[in-house]
């Protein structure tokens, strides 16, 4: 492989991570890609099997200095369990922006120096790198309208049935089956993916294709059975050709996911891939920046990692994914231990 190919491949991988800026000459990744004659992979990203025989790591040092990610604003971190019970009000209210922290690298900031950090002792004892946080779900008329019905649903089965009958966006018309999600209704651990793919659409079950098999193995590696956890997606119907979900579709579907999380009240949420992470955290920060840190979703610790489908294309993401799921496991264990302590002291 010549240098041009290596650079092309490297840039493809960086772009898949959501990075779009180059420092050198203020040239964008897309511009440079077209200069070196690479096709725009954006639309083909999911379906095209990107070669992954060669790992990104050996290539990275070659061009590492010229690639830089624009720092995204970092809202404050607030773990406040009481926020959780307010979701239904929140859905009908405007988004409350969190304060900004003037820190470009949250990892570099020790917990004690961060502004407005409300982290329970058991969690801060883990000394994890702290990331972004969302206080409220995005509110819009569409979501609020739908929410009034969805938020009254009493069980996950009712949510699933409601999602099956949903016609709030156009996706239902092409889908064979809705894929509301499945698993333990009392799960401590919830995995959230993007949207059903072909196999999921076929069976009406989440993560049953190749990526799903890998997810099952990943969970097994941290001693979690599929049946222990709850697995679902941001979207409950398959987008045609696995295209990216559209904002309207996300808004229409969001109440289902919110209600599922509200009913389950997990201890940890694992967001799989850029899309789930950015949707849940209401941010455009690239996944490479979101992963490896602790976030909060309505008071629930949330950890971001790469999508299993991305791991199938790129072996280099397996290592960081392993780190992320170990992090998630630590938070789960610490949360359970805290509950035991509380129960013992009552
Ligand atoms: N990819 C997803 O994001 N979700 C699934 O359920 C399957 C594949
Ligand atoms: N792009 C995604 O959408 N998800 C990943 O996990 C990695 C790259």
- Based on CA inertia axes, which overall geometry fits? globular
Major pleated sheet:
7 strands, mixed
**Given this structure, which CATH class of the largest domain is correct?**
Alpha Beta
- Number of strand elements: 9
What ligand species are in this complex? uracil
Outline the low-pLDDT stretches: 21-26, 40-78, 80-117, 133-141
Order of helices and strands: HHHEHEHEHHHEEHHEHEHHEEHH
Per the CATH scheme, the topology name of the largest domain is: Uracil-DNA Glycosylase, subunit E
Name the strands of the widest sheet in spatial order: 3-8-9-7-5-6-4
Percent of sequence in beta strands: 5-15%
From the alpha-carbon coordinates, what is the Rg to the nearest angstrom?
20 Å
Which bin fits the share of residues in helices? 40-55%
Structural class: alpha/beta
* Corresponding CATH superfamily of the largest domain: Uracil-DNA glycosylase-like domain
């Amino acid at each position: 492989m010549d240098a041009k190919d290596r650079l092309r491949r490297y840039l493809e991988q960086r772009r898949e991570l959501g990075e779009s800026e180059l420092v050198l000459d203020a040239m964008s990744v897309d511009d440079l890609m077209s200069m070196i004659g690479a096709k725009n992979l954006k639309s083909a990203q999911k379906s095209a099997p990107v070669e992954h025989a060669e790992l990104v790591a050996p290539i990275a040092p070659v061009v590492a200095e010229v690639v830089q990610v624009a720092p995204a604003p970092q809202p404050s971190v607030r773990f406040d369990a009481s926020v959780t019970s307010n979701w239904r009000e929140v859905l009908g209210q405007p988004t409350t922006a969190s304060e900004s922290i003037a820190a470009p690298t949250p990892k570099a900031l020790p917990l004690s120096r961060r502004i407005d950090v409300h982290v329970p002792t058991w969690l801060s004892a883990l000394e994890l790198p702290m990331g972004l946080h969302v206080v409220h779900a995005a509110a819009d008329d569409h979501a609020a309208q739908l929410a009034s019905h969805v938020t009254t649903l009493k069980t996950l089965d009712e949510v699933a049935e409601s999602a099956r009958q949903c016609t709030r966006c156009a996706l239902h018309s092409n889908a064979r089956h809705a894929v509301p999600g499945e698993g333990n209704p009392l799960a401590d651990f919830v995995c959230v993916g993007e949207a059903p793919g072909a196999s999921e659409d076929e069976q009406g079950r989440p993560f049953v294709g190749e990526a799903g098999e890998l997810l099952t193995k990943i969970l097994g590696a941290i001693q979690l059975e599929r049946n222990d956890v709850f697995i679902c997606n941001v979207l409950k119907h398959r987008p045609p050709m696995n295209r990216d979900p559209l904002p309207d579709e996300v808004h229409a579907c969001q109440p289902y996911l919110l209600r599922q999380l509200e009913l389950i009240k997990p201890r940890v949420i694992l967001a799989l891939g850029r899309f789930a992470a950015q949707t849940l955290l209401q941010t455009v920060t690239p996944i490479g920046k979101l992963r490896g840190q602790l976030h909060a979703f309505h008071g629930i610790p949330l950890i971001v990692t790469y999508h299993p489908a991305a791991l199938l294309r790129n072996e280099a993401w397996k290592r960081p994914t392993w780190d992320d799921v170990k992090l998630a496991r630590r938070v789960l264990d610490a949360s359970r231990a805290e509950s035991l302590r509380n129960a013992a002291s009552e």
